[in-house]
Amino acid sequence: MGFIDVIKARAKNDKKTIVLPESMDRRTFVAAEQILKEDLANLIIIGTPEEVAANSEGLDISKATIVNPFTYEKTQEYVDLFVELRKSKGLTPEDARATMMKDYAYYGCLMIKNGDADGMVSGACHSTANTLRPCLQIIKTKPGTKLVSAFFLMEVPNCEYGENGTFVFADCGLNQNPNPDELAAIAISSAESFRMLVEKEPKVAMLSHSSMGSAKHDDVTKVVEATRIAKESAPELALDGELQLDAAIVPSIGSSKAPESKVAGQANVLVFPDLDAGNIGYKLVQRLAKAEAYGPMCQGIAKPVNDLSRGCSAEDIVGVVAITAVQAQMND
Q1: pLDDT tens sequence across 4-53
Q2: What whole-number distance in Å separates Cα of residue 315 and Cα of residue 124?
C-alpha cells in the first residue's frame, strides 16, 4: 500500500467531519463525490443552493451535509461566537455576519470552533493567506506552539530515498524567510507531523547549499544556528545540518560529506532555509519526479485546517481531506 492508501484506511477507521467551504469550485464537488464514495469522512459543504447546483451538476453528493449560511439555524450562534472572539478588535455583529457571508472560510472555522466540525480544507481558489487568516483569528494556535508553519507530504514513485519515497518538505507555503529560532520550530513541528502521519521515526535534515562548513555565508550561518537551537530544544530528535540535498538523502554522498552524521543519507524530513527554496523544491519534485504533493498542510493550529495549491486536482483534495481527518483523530 502506498502512503495515501494507508492514510485513507486510517481515516475510515474513525471518521471525522471535514468542512469544504469552496462551493464555488467544481473540483470541490468532484472530490466530495469520491470522498463520500470511499467513506473517508463526513462532509459539510458551505454554499447556497444556487452555488451547489451550478457546480455539482451530474455528481452524487447526496451524503454530504449542505449548509446554506444565509438560512442555517446556527448562523446567529456563529455570529455571536465570532463577535465574542474578536470583541477586542471591535468587531460588530453586522461586520461579523458580512464577513462570514462573503468568505465561507470564516464560517467553516466558526463551525470548528463551535465543535460542529473537526477540520477544514480550503485553498483551491483562495490564497494561502486567505485560508489561514480566519483560522488564526478564530481557531488560534495549538498550546505551546511557537510558530504556525506549512509542509508538503511528498510521495515519490519508485524512489529508494526517504521513507520508501515518502518525505515531509517544510516550510514550502507560509514563512518567507524564517530566522534561526523560527527555522528550528519548523523543523521540530515537521518531525512531529512526519511521525504522526507516516508512523515512522523522522530523520530531519536542515538543508543548505553547504554541507558541514563547506561554504561560508550568512545564509549558511542561519541554518547552522537553527540546527543548534533545534538540537537543544529536542535533543531526542534525529536532526542534523547544515546539509546539501544530496548529502541529506543519498547514503553514499552522506557518508562522504558528513561521515559523523546519523541523519546524512537517510533524511525523510527536509527543512528548507526559506520559502523560495521550499516552494521551488517541492514543485520540481512534483513535476519532474511525478510525485504526489499533498499540501500545504498546516502545523501549529489548534484544530486541523489545511491549504491547497490553487493548481490542485480533485484527487489532491481527496488526499488532503484524508490527511486532515487523520490529523483530527490526533486531537481526540
Answers
A1: 889 999 999 999 999 999 888 899 999 999 999 999 999 999 999 999 99
A2: 12
Task: Tell me if residue 326 falls in helix, strand or coil.
Answer: helix
For 241-270, the pLDDT digits (tens) are 889 999 999 999 999 998 999 999 999 999
**How confident is residue 332, by pLDDT bands cut at 50, 70 and 90?**
low
Within the chain, where are the H helices? 3-13, 26-38, 49-55, 75-85, 93-102, 104-113, 128-138, 180-198, 218-233, 245-249, 251-257, 275-288, 314-330
Please indicate whether residue 127 or residue 72 has the higher confidence score (pLDDT).
Answer: 72
State the amino acid at position 40 in one-letter form: L
Pairing between β-strand 42-46 and β-strand 65-67 as defined by DSSP bridges:
parallel
Measured CA to CA in angstroms, residue 180 lies from 63, 149, 185, 216 at distances of 47, 14, 9, 16
pLDDT digits (tens, 9 = 90+) for 93-117: 999 999 999 999 999 999 999 999 9
Inter-residue contact 258 to 212 (CB < 8 Å) = yes
Q: What are phi and psi of 293, to 5 degrees?
A: -120, 105
DSSP string, 93-111: HHHHHHHHHH-HHHHHHHH
Domains recognised in the chain with CATH numbers: 3-140+303-330 (3.40.50.10950), 149-288 (3.40.50.10750)
Coil, helix or strand at residue 327: helix
- Cis ω before 171 (30° cut-off from 0): yes
